[in-house]
Amino acid sequence: MDKCLEIRGASKQYPGGIVAVDGVSLTASCGTVTALLGPNGSGKSTLLAMAAGVLRPSSGVFLVAGLEVWGPRGRDARRLLGYMPQAEPFHPLLTGWENLALHASMRGVRLDRGLVLELAEELGLGREALGRRVGGYSGGMKRKLALIAAVLHQPRVLLLDEPDSGLDPGSRRRLAEVLRRLARSGAAVVFTTHIGWSAAHADQVVFMHRGRVVAEGAPGELVEKYSPWHLVELEAADPEGLRAELERLGGVERVEARDGVLVVAVRGGPDALAAVARAAARHGLRRLSAREPGIEDAFLAATGQPLGEER
Ligand SMILES: Nc1ncnc2c1ncn2[C@@H]1O[C@H](COP(=O)(O)OP(=O)(O)OP(=O)(O)O)[C@@H](O)[C@H]1O
Hints:
By secondary structure, the protein is an alpha/beta fold. It has helices spanning about 45-50, 75-80, 95-105, 115-125, 140-150, 170-185, 195-200, 220-225, 240-250, 270-280, 295-305, and strands at about 5-15, 20-30, 35, 60-65, 65-70, 80-85, 155-160, 190-195, 205-210, 210-215, 230-235, 250-260, 260-265, 285-290. It has 2 domains: about 5-225, Rossmann fold (3-Layer(aba) Sandwich), CATH 3.40.50.300; about 230-290, ACT domain (Alpha-Beta Plaits, 2-Layer Sandwich), CATH 3.30.70.
């Protein structure tokens, strides 16, 4: 697969010595969806803005279809890019259609109404919403319109900063399908998120932590590598006794107490789970639930930091 986007050794220091991005290298192939997953402040937006050609890097190389975004042919590289920042670039007094027309003219392309209507329908934006002023849109509607604005010129590389923020689960599902379809048409789609569900639906996930890439791979590979266990939640009459017994049990990877609930990571199949359940029964089991690990668990195992918390 061709490399649509290549980033080598990207770093950014903000004034005051804040190192927001610290030596990041990654590749996004044409035809694939890549998620940059990390909590607030991990450097995702900074990295994306540098790749989009809107924030000057302290160092690093950003290649779009082989053209250096920050080099002499930067204008050509930027023509191949679509960028959706976190703050929507819209005029509140103009309608959706009028804002899109403005974006198309800035990009020097004709507004393809058919493309807009198709995307609006797929995203669940609604045809009549496009005729209304953007000032009256909800946050989710603005995100959808911003995505449409970013693809009007049919870019080779699509960079989306938290396209899923403010979307309900149904809209998130639609978004994931649209991103996949855009990638299938040959683009590299790269988006930032701190929502595990969104990342789990990408082809490639890059874990970002404190400005660095900690791990990357297909979602299933990352889960398998970093958290190949089931998570069992237990409430029991004698949590201390249960904890002590579980810590001695084979197949138990770790035991954590969270608000009176024991969270047990169990490696192995049904036998290991059954042994945990039997131990719990001996200590006054009140509630037990088990779930398979997800990408959030892999992120926590790889970085030591949960996705939801700032640090
Ligand atoms: N303009 C700026 N000046 C100084 N520091 C900044 C600036 N923009 C971001 N930072 C800092 O750089 C670090 C990375 O921020 P960045 O916004 O890139 O992270 P992020 O992972 O995208 O987080 P979020 O999900 O909140 O957007 C943070 O410590 C942030 O406070």
